[in-house]
Design goal:
The chain contains 5 helices and 6 strands. Helix 1 packs across helix 5. 39% of the residues are buried. Bound molecules: flavin mononucleotide. Flavin mononucleotide (FMN) binds next to helix 1.
Length: 185
């Protein structure tokens, strides 16, 4: 069985983030098939093209982590029907300077959760646009719009219901298949 290193971007900086919980649940379900490298984005300066020639160290750190990964996973909330600005700024940083885009060609997937019934669908659609723009090979399906319910996922990533567990396992299995199909022949 293959083992994949996955660079994980959680789009929320909130301590009690339900998206971080979801990421932990996916990590648990992945078991021995993957190691999750959580990418720190809270200290990366807001993207500024003036800094391309003196790149911020935090941006370089992130880019090295992405370069070392087999794939990228975004687990993001929806803010005002799009992705959080902090996530977009981090992606912009990772894609620069021109010609040194850390994301180019990496297999990637997106998932997210919110209390609303649309389960981050709009944010994910916006993120897919950005993923294509930076050359990530975005897994087309399954889409995973997770409506969060109290007690659904604990802070350590334990999932209460068997149905939710099965759904999330299906998402990870599809992601592993997707990563395999994207490996250079
Ligand atoms: C600035 C802001 C905008 C939000 N906009 C949306 C939205 O468009 N759709 C939605 O479902 N929830 C929205 N929410 C609610 C978030 O889904 C909720 O705060 C969720 O807990 C955020 O995820 P997190 O717990 O991982 O931080 C918004 C929250 C904030 C703070």
């Amino acid at each position: 069985m293959s083992h994949y290193k996955i660079a994980v971007f959680v789009g929320s900086l909130r301590k009690e983030s339900i998206n971080r919980r979801l990421a932990h649940a996916l990590e648990k379900l992945a078991g021995d098939q993957a190691s999750f490298d959580y990418i720190r984005i809270d200290d990366i300066p807001l993207y500024n093209q003036d800094h391309d020639s003196q790149f911020p160290a935090q941006g370089t750190r992130m880019k090295h982590q992405v370069a070392a990964a087999d794939a990228v996973l975004f687990v993001t909330p929806e803010y005002n029907r799009s992705i959080p600005g902090v996530l977009k700024s981090a992606i912009d940083t990772g894609s620069r300077p021109h010609g040194d885009n850390a994301f180019q060609g990496k297999p990637a997937a997106v998932i997210g959760t919110s209390f609303g019934s649309a389960g981050t669908a709009m944010a994910q659609q916006h993120l897919r646009n950005v993923m294509v723009a930076v050359g990530l090979a975005a897994m087309p399906r399954p889409e995973a719009f997770v409506q969060f319910k109290e007690g659904m996922i604990e802070a350590d990533g334990s999932v209460a219901s068997e149905g939710t567990q099965k759904f999330l396992q299906g998402f990870m299995d599809a992601f592993f298949d997707w990563i395999r199909t994207q490996q250079p022949k």
